[in-house]
Write a structure and sequence with these properties.
Elements lengths: L9 H8 L32 E6 L2 E6 L10 E6 L12 E4 L5 E3 L2 H9 L6 E4 L8 H9 L3 E2 L1 E2 L2 E2 L1 H7 L3 E4 L17 E3 L8 H5 L2 H8 L2 H21 L8 E4 L1 E3 L2 E5 L4 H8 L3 E2 L9 E4 L1 H8 L4 E6 L7 H7 L7 H4 L3 E5 L5 H4 L4 H12 L13 E2 L3
Parallel strand pairs: 3-4, 5-6, 5-10, 6-7, 10-11, 12-15, 12-17, 17-18
Antiparallel strand pairs: 1-2, 2-3, 8-9, 13-14, 14-16, 18-19
Amino acid sequence: MKFLKYLIPFATVVALMGCGGHRSSEANNGKGSIVTDTLGMIHPNYAKGFNVSYQDDLVLLDINDPENKEAEQFHFALTDKDFSGKVPDGYTRLNIPIESAICMTSLQLSNFLKLDIPEKVVGITSTRHLHNEKMNEQLKEGKTHKIGIEGNFDNEVIMAINPDVIFISPFKRGGYDAIRNVDIPMIPHLGYKELTPLGQAEWIKVIGLLTGKSADANREFAGIEKRYNDLKAMVDTVSYRPTVFSGEMRGGNWYAVGGKSFLAQLFRDAGGDYFLEDNNESGGVTLDYETVYTNAAHADYWRIVNSFDGDYNYNVLKEQDNRYTDFDAWKNHGVIYCNMKEVPFYEKMPVEPEVVLSDFILVFHPDILSGYEPSYYHLLEK
């Protein structure tokens, strides 16, 4: 089946057969061979927001909100450009492999960078905190373009770029209605809605599927998965689990993440407990100071991510809000800090959950990862 050459290098077949792969029960329609799991096809194990099924000469990609099965769903029939058959009702045809794409978020971009195909990204919304050298070179050379910001996209630039696809986050306030008339396929990337770090990272498989890099995506994710689970196992039986809280006061409100978020799961997997453990929110939550203080006054650690210009330290925190000094995590120098100006946080973190996990384990249980040098987060010392 000619179409499958974009999905399955022969080496992958051999490697996976040697690992005890098994045949799938996918039926054909008499026009080609049966697709088998031994060929290294895309199958999500952690992500809840996408599913892939295989038919002769086409692949069906179904995308749904991982948190809400009642929300709008999206269906794509992925085909070879020479495909002349009929796609199932309710599916939008999309020829693969795609050669060019617009990324609306850093999470989407991270998948392309992990697969080492930045040249396929021809448009992005923001260059703030963009560290990747190849992407910055492409921007300077005019190979990648800024297309405006959410809610104020530049349709003329988008049409001039004319990418094969635009990746969107449809359940955010993104102003996507304004670009629907450009007649370019828009594909939801819902990694940000996943509730686990591995579920979020597994969306690299969707990008691999669409770009003809399925084998690479499977290999990259297999490495992420193994390293993550090996690290998680190292702290499964720890007797001491420190408590950690997150966020800062901004404009009179404290912005944190819910107890069901992937970040809260990261804390748990690192051998810690999140201060909003009983909260059922999976996204950002807005709290008042009193609520945070009641729940986190005696927490061991405080996680902060920002883009502070200068030397971020405990005195800076005190100057920002003197009430911060009431927290034990401030008194005992337990602030876990990441400065996005200094590290490529958003463009790499989504596909490196095992690295973030290592950073947290080093803080929570330093004896377990003695000698490890953190990559994103570190304890503020002064």
